TrEMBL record:
GO cellular component: cytoplasm
Residue span, GH3 C-terminal domain: 396-500
MF GO annotations: acid-amino acid ligase activity
Domain of life: Bacteria
Listed name of the protein: GH3 family protein
Domain GH3 middle, residue spans: 311-381
The organism of origin for this protein: Geobacter sulfurreducens (strain ATCC 51573 / DSM 12127 / PCA)
Amino acid sequence: MIRSSIDLMLKTGAAALAKNFENRDPIAGQREILARLVVAAAVTRFGRDHGFAELAGEPFDRLYAEFRRRVPIRTYADFWRDYFSAWQSDANGSQRLLLEDVTWPGRIPFFCETSGTTAPTKYIPFSREMFAANKRAAIDLTACYLHRTPRSRLFQGKLLYMAGNTSLTDLGNGVQSGDMSGITLRHRPFYLRPFVAPGMAVSALPWEEKVVELAGLLLSDRSIRGISGVPPWIILLLQRVEEMGHRPIAELLPNLELIIHGGTSMKPYRREFDGLFPRRRPHFLEVLPSSEAFMAFQLPGEDRMRLVPHYGAFFEFIPIEDLDEGGTPAADAPTVPLEAVETGRRYAVILTTCAGLWRYHIGDTLRFTALSPHFIEFTGRDRFLDRFEEKVTQGEVEEAVARLNQLDGIEVREFMVGPDIGERRHLWVLAVGEMNERSGDVLGRHLDATLRSLNADYATFRSQGRIAGPRVVTVSGDVIYRWSKEVRGKLGGQSKIPHVDPTVEGEMVASLAAFADGFRPAGSPTASRDSAPRAG
């Protein structure tokens, strides 16, 4: 009864919030956000270094021009060197990090730990203002969902949140660091706790144990109506539910109405979701959160995400052709604000945030497909397959696997691709289902043909013999996850298998391929021996 009353109250307020969201002017909002951020940070060390007090009250065109002139584009390494490292210390073997009035006014209470594949762990500042901004984004998304889905019973039940590691590290002086999803879950508002599962005891379990407990929870608690997580982990969870329940997922979870997914493209996994829900599908909504800011989400009835530039971050964009060969912009690279973006172009994202990141190169790229609203498609990380100057994007890689999964007898569950420097070709490691009926050479030919159709540079280089045909190694899904756990030390939650190897020389994909070789039965053929299509 209480849940029904709360549900009715939420739906009553959802219409007003949704209308407010739809009526916001993103361009005007971006102008206001930049002005507020500059004024707020004028008292900080960063603000004094860049003369922010002199910019207060300037009209946007003049403010933005001067802001770009005074503040260089920075990477994380730049921020760490110039501002963060001076405030790090060690005490009794424990790391301490205290940023107070450094790049944002007041003390930064949280740091989101993001793993570096070729660098140490990054500590991304996460202020109380950013926490509040993310909460507003979640409320707006929920309101729009309830308004556009009038029969929803989501808040008559619970949302299962597949968070990462929820244990937080004490950095001293009341400051904590950890996985962003763990920070969000541990410090969620008290009034949301009855609507979120699982409890903290389950959330803190090791990943393999957590999946089993979450599957059991889904089978035993029919009030769970939504799941939020990364696509491959959601699939893994639903498959475990089927294994434990011995029936199709649609029968086992008849009340499941919403799946919120993000962190990696849905394209390679769509076929598996279709197989899990052959008739009645829940609603699927894609989100693009990051440790730096909440950037985009999808509304019911729309097939793409909208950029949502309303939540404490000022956006700038750099065409990817202006990045260097390592995917990094120059400090003075030409940028455009939201009002000057064009459809069809692929941009690197530069953020200025209410957590004290200024013109920060976050490493994500996107493409605008419309400007009113600002519909986008996430096109992956700035790093792409370009070791041989072919510049194949992560979006093209994921599209190639998605098309592979459309063929009968093929089920790629997870994958990674990177350069094989010595052989001048791409090395693909595909985690395939048990029913895969195609050999590595057939898979390689399909991938090769798709990339030729998607990328003119790749097609030219292949026809000229400058790149050899791809090498394909097939493994089972459990092997690729075991490698991630044992070699990378990361599994589950918000940790994802990189689809494009982020290392310069292809060390990561080579490591995975070598690890996979150790699990082949004696005498079995290796897909890598004969899977390279000839050049031309």
